[in-house]
Amino acid sequence: MRSPPSNSGIATAVLSTFFAATLAGQAVRAAALPAPAPSSATCGSQPYDTTQYSCTDGMLCPVGTDACGTSTSYACYDPSLYYCDGGQLAQGAAGSTSSSASSSSSSSSSSSSSSSSTPADVSATGVATAIGSTTTSAAGTTTSSTAAAATATSSAISCGGAFLGLQITSDASAYLENVWVWTADHELDLSDHSQVSIYTGRGMLVESNTADGGVWMYGTAVEHNQLYNYQLNGARNVFMGLIQTETPYYQSAPAATTPFTPGLAGSSWNDPTFSDCTTSACEKAWGLRVVNSSDVMVYGAGHYSFFENYTQTCIASDSCQDSVVSIEGSTGVTLFAVTTVGTANLLKLDGTLAAPASANNDTYGSTFAMFAQA
């Protein structure tokens, strides 16, 4: 791998702005809106800047998103990923059919081709992103503790957070340091600070595959996402130092494939299908999934599966989850100092469970010192 680029050689991006634009379930809290500008209007009794927000039946949303619900309880969503059905968000385009899906796929390919002509290097240091239960999903919306209480096992998409947390595309490289991509597991806005069930389909997707680029991560964490937290898909030259994940506390009720259907948005996402699972402990989010990738180095990882549907009796027996790391069809993968909690096996290699926790006990967690693949 090349040495990581210096910060002076790459454009610095404020990724929190990117995430704010991709949160499918976000709603705007009135108190967080900017002060009225010359182009202001009112939505109900709330002034707002018409260059940044739009008002529909008393519901304020960022420009480019639509509103679903009522003026007292609603969510703002990306219409390219969701549609509103009777006041509830549903995944996919409204009225989509197989032919329209094909058309959508063609448009996606065209867009991808266009973006590949302008590759980008991105550096981000000290960025925390929160999906659900924050000022972007205020009290009264579908991602607050009043609407997404942890005691409910409903998989209603109305508690949806986002389709995807962060994507590094095939023609991009990145330097990430002290970056946290978090789907909320507890309330922040309301005084109860209680646990919540927020559904985000995917965590961080890394597809960087440039001839002279790479991805470097130092001190990153991705937590509580439905299908996976980290996924490397067709990537190469990836370094991950001190990464951390947590499996969603509510799984396996619902399991990983609900409410986000693997592959619904197109096969190019290469979502895990969990088709070989026969137990509920198997169909849970991957902490790290490496698929069809090469030259990957992980130096220090903590993958934690603390719960089975909000109960923790499974920790003592390492039975909360079958395995949390999967390597599939890849070469040149090296893992150092990987620790898990609550998982029966530390690794799944091309569909075969490996490194049982019982043989790698390390006080509280289970740890293997090194795994190296030719």
Radius of gyration over all CA atoms, rounded: 21 Å
Output the strand order for the largest sheet.
Answer: 1-10-12-14-16-18-21-25-24
> How much helical structure, as a percent, in the residues?
under 10%
> How many separate helices?
2
Give the termini distance in whole angstroms. 16 Å
Low-confidence stretches at least 5 residues in length (pLDDT < 50)? 5-38, 96-118, 134-141
Tally of DSSP β-strands: 25
Mean pLDDT: 77
Helical/strand content category:
mainly beta
Shape: globular
Q: Main β-sheet: number of strands, strand sense, barrel status? A: 9 strands, mixed
Strand content: 35-45%
What order do the SSEs take from the amino end to the carboxyl end, as H and E?
EHEEEEEEEEHEEEEEEEEEEEEEEEE
Structure description:
The protein has 374 residues and is mainly beta. It is 7% helix and 42% strand. It has 2 helices and 25 strands. The protein has helices at 15-22, 98-116, and strands at residues 11-12, 40-43, 46-49, 53-56, 59-62, 66-70, 73-77, 82-85, 88-91, 121-131, 160-168, 173-183, 199-206, 215-223, 228-233, 236-246, 286-291, 294-304, 321-323, 325-328, 331-341, 343-349, 352-356, 361-362, 365-372. The strands form 6 sheets. A 9-stranded mixed β-sheet has the order 1-10-12-14-16-18-21-25-24. Strands 11, 13, 15, 17, 19, 20, 22 and 23 form an 8-stranded mixed β-sheet that branches. The two termini are 16 Å apart. Mean pLDDT is 77; it is low at 5-38, 96-118 and 134-141.
